[in-house]
Design a protein that fits this description.
Rossmann fold; alpha/beta; P-loop_NTPase; ATP-binding; kinase; 222 residues; 11% strand; binds adenosine-5'-diphosphate
């Protein structure tokens, strides 16, 4: 396991407040594991997957527009989005997927910004599994941290964690950005391939100190 990325100031989001780090990685790379290690150091997390789920839960912000545009058959009995039905639709219908995203993406963005503003901590980590795939996120964060491992490691972990077959995991990975594309978008990289959790925690600690310094520099420049 190694950490790369020099301490070279901030990028496009430097004027945003608070200092915001985007955390991403492929499925099974160890994003949640790494995010939890930062959280244990007092860094607030904003998780876009959690927000996406919340806005399509009963009474969620996306539910009225979804019912209006897709019809009541896409709303389950409890008032949440009928996920299985919507998944089947957007899997086969690109226009429907774009219409759904036109509802959800602005809401996810607005909720992410609100939670980031309201978070209390030295800096904020926004966990965006599809940061590289949905390009705009990169410009909304000061810095991108990628959790990286081999595809074979991803497959093994997700088969164990979710009980999926190798083919199921490979199909998910095939829909995500490639490892190379993710690394190209990274300011910092944690390589989490066969790493012991203690070693991972040490890497997180080194990065945490770096981010504290960058956040401090951003505050001092105001
Ligand atoms: P992601 O959020 O990127 O999908 P997770 O953090 O959930 O990935 O990690 C996937 C699985 O692999 C989890 O069950 C996690 O406990 C395990 N895992 C992650 N990193 C390591 C590691 N360094 N050593 C052992 N198990 C790990």
């Amino acid at each position: 396991m190694t950490i790369t990325g020099a301490m070279t100031g901030t990028t496009s989001g430097a004027t945003r407040e608070p200092f915001t780090l985007g955390l991403t990685g492929g499925i099974g790379s160890g994003k949640s594991t790494v995010a939890d290690l930062f959280a244990a150091r007092g860094v607030p997390l904003v998780d876009t997957d959690v927000i996406a789920h919340r806005i399509t839960a009963p009474g969620g912000l996306a539910m009225a527009p979804i019912a209006a545009q897709f019809g009541p058959e896409f709303v389950a009995a409890d008032g949440s989005m009928d996920r299985a039905r919507m998944r089947a639709l957007v899997f086969s219908d690109e226009t429907a997927r774009k219409r759904l995203e036109a509802i959800t993406h602005p809401l996810i963005r607005a909720e992410t910004e609100r939670e980031t503003r309201e978070a209390n901590g030295p800096y904020v980590i926004v966990v965006v599994p599809l940061l590289v795939e949905s390009g705009a996120w990169k410009s909304r964060v000061a810095r991108v941290l990628v959790v990286d491992c081999s595809v074979e490691t991803q497959i093994g972990r997700v088969m164990r964690r979710n009980g999926f077959s190798r083919e199921q995991v490979q199909a998910i990975i095939a829909r995500q950005a490639t490892r190379e594309a993710r690394l190209a978008a990274a300011d910092d990289v944690i390589v989490n391939d066969g790493a012991k959790l203690e070693a991972l925690a040490q890497d997180v600690e080194i990065l945490h100190q770096r981010y504290l310094a960058l956040a401090g520099a951003q505050n001092a420049a105001r």
